[in-house]
Each structure stands twice: as structure tokens, then as C-alpha cells.
Amino acid sequence: MGRSPCCAKEGLNRGAWTATEDKILTEYIKVHGEGKWRNLPKKAGLKRCGKSCRLRWLNYLRPDIKRGNITHDEEELIIRLHKLLGNRWSLIAGRLPGRTDNEIKNYWNTNIGKKISSTPNHRPRIQSEERPNSTSISPRPSLNNGPPPVLHAKPSRCTKVFIATEPPKVDQVIETRPVSLGPSTVQGLAMAHDQKAEEPDSSPAIGSGNENDSNPSDFMIDFEMDANFLSEFLNSDFSQLCDFHDGVEADSNTNNTSSTSQHSSPNATEAPLLMNEEETLQNSNLFSLDSFLDCEMDWFC
DNA sequence: AATAGAATCAACCGCCCGTGG
DNA sequence: ACCACGGGCGGTTGATTCTAT
């Protein structure tokens, strides 16, 4: 491949794993558990690089790996998550139980990527050198002007928030102290979102998908968001956001986030913004998360 | 049946980050 | 503050399989 090896590989096996190697690795991890990959090959008696062992285990030998083709639901979810996260395959894989980042990455490159690139409004893949070093949510150029920007959830703290309903003025730039982004922050942003949406005289709601929303400065957040936050956000706060969206402050006393009845809207016709993810998993129904992403991607953008 | 080209996917790569000394 | 190390990540490669001619 033209690259210098990352570590000494003299005498190490390369290429496809044999059944024997798989068995040795599996047995070793069963007994000793994961981790210490660098020492693992020596201890297990494998002539493999530690990284190779880790990859083989994570992508192929792990017992919870889901085999078989990507389902239609999974594909839709991948597309939506990719819109939201970009090429953060591990994060995307984290939302698809049993699927690995490598599998999703391959699937994207061989299937979805082609589908999308064959459509007129496709966005070219972001090359590594083009990727921003810090997280930012770029202002949406125009809702009619191609897909929304990708949110790169890499860095770790909020440094600046800028929300404006008019074209930007200097004094509308709100410099904030760095804050950790957590559930309350999400809720706060959601609150800002909803309040803004409810103001009759305000410009179109944040990410409302309004076709007239040509002002890219309407909602700009320049903050850094780490994977933990996103994971927290995607994992555990659906109920809060859901309650909040229903106009009911999430009851801090209700530790029963699994209580799905709390999330039902009083108005049966008003679907909650978010569904409880437990419901999603229990029902193996990915559409709940889909609906969440439908709403939240617009909101993010 | 043979061959070339396309498609697929496991494996490898370098880079980066978090952690502990 | 600095450094070394382990581990994780996304990008890329190449062997294998599939399909068209």
C-alpha cells in the first residue's frame, strides 16, 4: 500500500484471518476480556498485530454482531444519521445495535453513497483535509440550496452562541462563558427553539424548513459539541425533550424515563417531538428515532 | 466457458486523543 | 508541563466475488 508500517511486523501474519486464529482470539477474550490489545497477541499466541486483533474482534468475532443485509429501516436511519453526523461511522454504528462502524462505512460507500451521488442535489463527500478542525454548525446557506450542513460532533465545549432573528449585528453576538453541553443545555436550546417558533412576529422558526427561510444568519450556533454530549443527547434525553415539547416541563422527580405513558401527548393528534428510545428498541422500530431525527436535524441546522 | 470490469468488504493504515506516570 | 502508551477513528487498499460480454 505504499505506507510504512505503524509498528514492527516482522514475523506477523497479515491478511485474512484463519478459523484457527479466530478461535484462539475468541477463546482468549472469553477468558481475559477485551483490552490490552498490544499485549494480547503475545499472550494469546497469535502472530498478529494488536490492532489487527482488536479490529477482528470488534468487526467480526464479537458475539453481538448482527449478520445479514442492512434492512431498509436501517438504511434510512443511516442516511439520516449521516446527514446529522457526517462520516462519524462509530457514532452512527452506535445507534444501530449489532452493526459495526466498518460495516456501515462500507455500506455507505458501496450503496448509499452511490445513490445519493446520483441524485442532483447530492453533496460531495467531505475530504479529510477539508474537514474543519473544530466543530461548528455552519449557517444554512439556503434551504433550497442543497442539503443541510453536517454537524461534526468532535470537540468538547460551548464557546459561542449566536442567535439572531435579523441579519447579524455586532451587538447580537452573544459571547458566553464556555459551558458544558448537557441535557439542560439541550433543553434550553430546545426552549429557545420553541419560543422562537411560537413568536408570531419572528422570522421563520429555527430550521423550520420554511422555504422562505433564506436568511442564513437566523440561527447560528458556533459551539463545540463532543461525542459524549451527542451520545447523551441521543441516548437519554428523549423523554425530557419529549415532555418539554409537549409544554410540560420534564418532571425532575420522574426517574422513570421508561414510563412511556408520560410521553404521550395530551393531544392525540399532536405527535411528540421525540419518542422514548426504549420504545424504539423494544419494538425494534427504528422509525421513532427517524422521526426524532426528522425534527432535530432541522432544528440543528 | 473464458475473460474483463465492477462491486463488495475485511483488513490495514496513519493520525489523533485520553490517560497515567 | 511533558512524554509515552493504549486505544479508537475515518480513510484507503486489495483480495475475492459477482456480473456482463
TrEMBL record:
PROSITE patterns named among the record's database cross-references: HTH_MYB, MYB_LIKE
Keywords: DNA-binding, Nucleus
Family matches, as SUPFAM superfamilies: Homeodomain-like
InterPro entries, sorted: Homeodomain-like_sf, Myb_dom, Myb_TF_plants, SANT/Myb
Disordered: region residues: 112-151, 175-219
Subcellular location field: Nucleus
Every Myb-like domain range: 9-61, 62-112
Polar residues compositional bias, start-end: 112-121, 133-145
Pfam families: Myb_DNA-binding
PANTHER family documented for this protein: ANTHOCYANIN REGULATORY C1 PROTEIN-LIKE (PTHR47999:SF70), TRANSCRIPTION FACTOR MYB8-RELATED-RELATED (PTHR47999)
Protein name as catalogued: Transcription factor TT2
Organism in which the protein naturally occurs: Vitis vinifera
Lineage: Eukaryota, Viridiplantae, Streptophyta, Embryophyta, Tracheophyta
